Structures are given as structure tokens and as C-alpha cells.
Amino acid sequence: MTKPATGFGGTEDTVLDDMPSLPPPSVPAAGTVVDDSDIDPNEEADNGPTDFVYPDSKDQSSSTPLTPSFETIIPNGAIINGFFVLDNLIIHNGTFYIVTHNRSVFPALKEDLVWRPHVSGQVEREPNEEAGFLFSLPRAIYGDWRFGDPREEVQLDHRDPIRTVKHYYHWWGEIILGGWHVYSRIGLDPDGTFHPERLRLSDRFLLPVVVDGKWRDEARVVGPFMHAAFPQAAIEERDQWLDLIRLNRTIVFQRALVTNRRAAHQQ
Known about the structure:
five-stranded mixed beta sheet, disordered N terminus
């Protein structure tokens, strides 16, 4: 049964079942990546993607229609190894979906994914149920998925181990400033003219593996500086990330900045 369509960002959910549907990814079973017990709050080893940042929707409606022309793009070539910006990035059950007719436009994104360590200490780079990128044609992304309000935002996704994130120089010198350097390309015209007004500050930082405030450095410098630089940004941890997965809703990030310090160093 099709619910009334209220437009993208409407007050009611919109189910578009008149188009070919893509089966939603299965919810990971208990004891897998979404089980709280698999995260050791005292763990300091390389245990996967530590931060995922996205700003608040502010309950704003979007002018982006849910049509077959909807695609994920890299705006203004804002991409280098380990840092890339994506517009219209979809997340469902902890999996990111890149919607495109031309997959060759995108780099090999699996090298920008870091998740659970092997016994040997080597970190997996293949997508899995909670930390993966999948590709879909625009016409296949709709169907029976329920879309919530869009997130009109800048998203900063750090995929680095906890012991790296809680170090002041790595967090600010590499992750934040490195990501902002790539993000600022959006404000650059072909003739070299720069438009800083095109750059929007993040509204929310979501850290999907961090618990108990362990993203803060021992000197307690990172936290105050984050609030000074992003005064309106909420900084959320793993419990909020799990809430998004358990909500079983599809979210469209209108702009996402994804970073991976490890990938930037290895390539």
C-alpha cells in the first residue's frame, strides 16, 4: 500500500512502491557489529572507524526530488586519497549507498573503509553490514524504503582508530584540517576565485565506535577547540549511531565529507 507522498522532507513518510525496489540490507544479527558488547570501552588498539560526523537536519525541507534522476555526486572534484565529499549519500541500516549510473566516476572506496581488526591486528578494509559502500542505479534505490526528513548538512566521517583520534595533533592537524582543505574546494571557481560563503560548518559529529568520551585527548584540548570552531555542532557517540541503525529508516545526506587518515597515508 502506498502512503500519500508529501514531498521530500514532508511530515509523512513516503513509500514509493511504483518503482523497481532494492531489498533493504538485512539487520545484523545480535552479537555482530551492532552489538554493544563487541566494543571494549578501554580498547586502545586499531579497532576501526572511530568517528562519523554529520550535521543536524534542522527540520528543513529539501528541494531535491525523489526521482530516477537522483544521483550521488562528488561536487567540484572535492576528492583526494583518504578525503572525499559526496552529495546525496544514502545511509540505511548502517550501510552507505552511492546512487549512480556511472560507477567509474567514483574511486575504489573500499580503501577508505576501516573496520574490525583481524586476530593478527590487521584491519579489515572490505565493506560489511555496518561499514560499507554499496552501489545502486537510481531507479533501484526507491521501492519500499521509508525516507525520513533529509539531512541538509556537511558530514565529516573519520575512519581512524581510537588511539589516533584522541591525540590532539592527529585530530586537528590531520583529520579536521585535512578534511577542511578538501571540503574548501567546493568554494573554488575554475578561474581560481574562492567563495568562502559556500562552505557551511558541520552541525553534528557522530562517532560510531567511540564510547564514554574517549575521543578527547588527555590534555583536554580537543574538546574545547571543537566547541570553539563548531559552536552549534553536537558531538555524538556510538549509542546515537546504533539508534540510527535500529530506527530502520533511510536517510539522505545532502552533503557528506568522508575522511580516513590511514588511507591518506597509505596511498
